[in-house]
Amino acid sequence: MKRSKIAGIGYYVPENVVTNDDLSKVMETSDEWIQERTGIQQRRYGRKHEETTTTMGAQAARIACERAGISPEDIDFIVFATLSPDYYFPGCGVLLQRELGITKREAGALDIRNQCSGFIYALSIADQFVKTGMYKNVLVVGAEMHSMGLDFSTRGRNVTVIFGDGAGAAIIQPTDDSEQGILTTKLHSDGTYAEKLAFINPGAHGGYHANKAGETYDFGFPPKDTYGEIFITQKMMDDGQYYPNMEGQFVFKLAVQKFPEVIHEALKDAGLQASDISMLIPHQANLRISQFVQKQLGLSDDKVWNNIQRFGNTTAASVPIALCEAWEAGKIKKGDLVCLAAFGSGFTWGSALIRW
Hints:
By secondary structure, the protein is of the alpha+beta class. Helix content is 31%, strand content 23%. The protein has helices at 20-23, 31-38, 53-68, 92-100, 118-131, 157-160, 234-239, 248-270, 287-297, 308-311, 318-328, and strands spanning 3-12, 16-19, 42-45, 77-81, 108-112, 138-144, 166-175, 181-189, 197-198, 209-210, 216-217, 245-246, 279-282, 337-344, 348-355. The radius of gyration is 20 Å and the shape is globular. The two termini are 19 Å apart.
């Protein structure tokens, strides 16, 4: 069985920079309040009605292809990770295929919804496809257009100030070099507390139904006159239920537990130690979380890449954006041991060890 490697990486972030001071003009917050809780100073927002999750993913994908020495037409399979797809359905995978102009080959496209750990899940899937010899050029994309679905009011500030837009991509190929490639990936989930970080409405769960008189009915089969009114109700609008919700303290406590666990699991599987890590690329959820994990692993500042200060949390895109930035900065070189790790909604978490 061959080993797979990252043959090319690329990222794209929109030009529009939104600072903490900009947000303070539309909600009760401040630069000090945001930085103290998250470490974020600014983030990027895409151009409304011009940029989408798919178009940003395509920008990153083209760069990754060029650096891998292939053209988009060489792509055998697409794995697209996002929580903010262009449409409810179909997924972004086929839209990306169309955006890249490679529909004639009819290569498969897979969409996954693993939120913050989406890229690592996608990378693991690509790794299996390549190692088994099924595909030779797998495009993995993590992209998000959060700005189109955030609550820009004081009510939503705890969530809104965190997120930004962007995309990252990688081309996964086979390698015969035993000293290079993806060494291991570890994936986990626990849905017990799924609603602690969730975007629940609108949805097909039927949480609320409303009749023409505006009366609401809780879970269960709806009365006859509610058909056609399941997805959006006045109650959802009044209560702001169509925005993401997060219990920050709960998420923080779980994240600082699971992050180090899944990293140590990968290291043990590969017969390595934390001191062997050349560069840690954590999902950019919160600067405090990254700093806690860094301390737990005993890593120096030059062995951890953080860019949440400039880009905010770009969810599925955050790991590939940070990985690409670190590589472009010369912080990742051939032979280095790179560790990727993420934790997010679901809850899902994962890690990957890569010999560059």
